[in-house]
Design a protein that fits this description.
4 domains, hpI Integrase, Chain A, alpha+beta, about 40% helix, 18 helices, 3-stranded antiparallel beta sheet, 12 strands, DNA polymerase, domain 1
């Protein structure tokens, strides 16, 4: 066992020599330097700690160094500063960097973490639960979790941490705690808003009513966000392309990817007229309006007599500037776009986001679907094609005509039999129609209903036409195929 010792010192009060409560140990580190380390007040524990230090030093001298040793000794606040520098180096905006810094620093302080060894999934779960108890939404809790996991993954990839301690953690269900639902605008409301806004003489942060009307029109026709619209210049449009397009550089898009968005022809014509006389290389909608875009739209909606808050299927919905994007994406899907086309136009990487959060089908959309369903009222007769498929059921009146009886016919070389429906009964002279009884199939009495198509197929039959299975289905009475006998016995010949 490694040798440990207690140091001797002179007590300044009494002047006598005393020994320290802690045990110390000496060892040569990986660089060959003699080290003296304070260990523990327990001798057995101190000896174990010293033995571990010597073992690691021997591995380092053999070239097997611990790559995380120095990073474990570095406070997490220092790692956080390095991460924020990395974000800026990757051209993340200052707003983005400040938001991540606030969330991660708040989590480190709230959890009491100082070093990487302190990171714990259990403590983080408790901290996020405390946030929700304090009134934060599930979405906010998920945002904090995402920021912390992003920071920790950066440490793992950069060789600062050996593993991600939060790999098992998942965000909560935001649908159970929606604080703000964004609504959409109906076509009537859109027409009214654009018409009224274009006639307003007052300005909002330098934008006239006509400029705001064109801004809203472009937002509804492209799905661009407020910050993206604020960056558009006359050179951002290509009217000679087929179709006409609007270009967003990667520096202003949310996903940091340049996008070429197609424009409807009528919108392209309106934008072309709007650009007449506009200075080149200058924003079409300059100023700080994008910082208060919700207030701007609220004022214009109120002036047009359009409610800002409406009642939706799941509660009250607010029309802020992002409502234009909601309306655009929903209109894209209503126009018949498949999910891939809708994702491309919405610039989404997750189809769940496109179909779930934005493309919310309204009641009038559902009404158009259910009105196409077949009528199911008691007085509605079944269409003729459907009756041809269903045939006679147990409730049909057999006195209206001769019943149709099934008969069997061979189907070729394979010797298999096809189930045929005869136009007439086998014995036309057997008496009046009301006394006739349809011929049974291979021992199946009519009381049990005709042979079900799946049962016939399993027995080697192929249906020549659709049979009427409902009587047999209702009674659930079928005889085993072993009852086949006599003239109805099937033969492979």
């Amino acid at each position: 066992m490694a040798n440990v010792f207690r140091r001797t010192y002179v007590d300044p009060k009494s002047g006598t020599k005393k020994k320290t409560k802690k045990y110390y140990g000496k060892y040569v580190d990986g660089d060959g330097v003699l080290q003296r380390k304070s260990l523990s007040t327990n001798k057995v524990a101190a000896e174990t700690m010293l033995a571990e230090l010597k073992r690691k030093a021997e591995l380092e001298r053999a070239g097997l160094r611990d790559p995380f040793k120095e990073h474990r000794r570095t406070p997490l606040s220092v790692h956080l500063t390095a991460w924020l520098t990395s974000l800026r180096a990757n051209r993340r905006g200052e707003d983005y960097v400040a938001l991540k810094q606030a969330r991660v620093a708040g989590t480190l302080a709230g959890c009491g973490w100082v070093y990487a060894a302190d990171l714990s999934a259990d403590r983080l779960e408790t901290f996020l639960q405390e946030l929700r108890v304090q009134g934060r939404s599930v979405q906010t809790s998920n945002d904090w979790l995402q920021a912390v996991r992003q920071f920790v993954r950066w440490m793992v990839v950069g060789g600062r941490l050996e593993r991600d301690p939060f790999v098992r953690m998942k965000g909560g269900n935001v649908r159970t705690d929606v604080r703000r639902r964004r609504g959409e605008l109906t076509p009537t409301e859109v027409d009214k808003l654009l018409g009224e806004t274009s006639c307003i003489e007052s300005t909002f942060r330098g934008l006239t009513g006509r400029e705001r009307g064109m801004l809203y029109r472009l937002a509804l026709g492209t799905g661009f966000r407020a910050k993206e619209l604020a960056a558009l210049e006359p050179e951002s449009f290509d009217f000679a392309a087929d179709p006409p397009t609007a270009l967003l550089p990667a520096t202003v898009t949310k996903n940091r990817q340049a996008i070429v968005q197609p424009l409807p022809d009528d919108l392209a014509d309106e934008v072309g007229r709007f650009l007449i006389g506009r200075p080149s290389r200058k924003p079409l909608w300059p100023g700080t309006w994008s910082d208060r875009s919700a207030d701007m739209l609220k004022a214009d909606l109120t002036a047009a007599g359009i409610p800002v808050v409406v009642s939706g299927p799941e509660g009250d919905e607010t029309r802020d500037f992002h409502a234009f994007r909601n309306t655009y994406i929903s209109n894209v899907i209503r126009a018949g776009a498949d999910i891939k086309q809708a994702m491309t136009l919405a610039r989404h990487s997750d189809p769940k986001l496109t179909a779930g959060r934005y493309a919310r089908t309204r009641l009038f959309d559902l009404g158009a679907v259910v009105n196409k369903l077949p009528a199911a009222s008691p007085g509605t007769s079944t269409p003729e094609p459907q009756r041809a498929i269903l045939g006679r059921t147990g409730t049909d009146d057999v006195s209206t005509g001769p019943p149709t009886g099934p008969k069997l016919a061979p189907t070729g070389d394979s010797g298999r039999l096809r189930l045929m429906i005869a136009d007439e009964t086998d014995n036309p002279a057997s008496g009046p129609a009301e006394t006739k009884k349809p011929r049974s199939i291979s021992g199946f009495e009519d009381d049990y209903g005709p042979l079900m198509i799946p049962e016939a197929e399993r027995a080697g039959f192929e249906p020549a036409v659709q049979c009427y299975p409902y009587a047999a289905l209702a009674k659930r009475c079928f005889r085993p195929l072993s009852h086949l006998s006599g003239e109805n016995t099937l033969s492979p010949d």
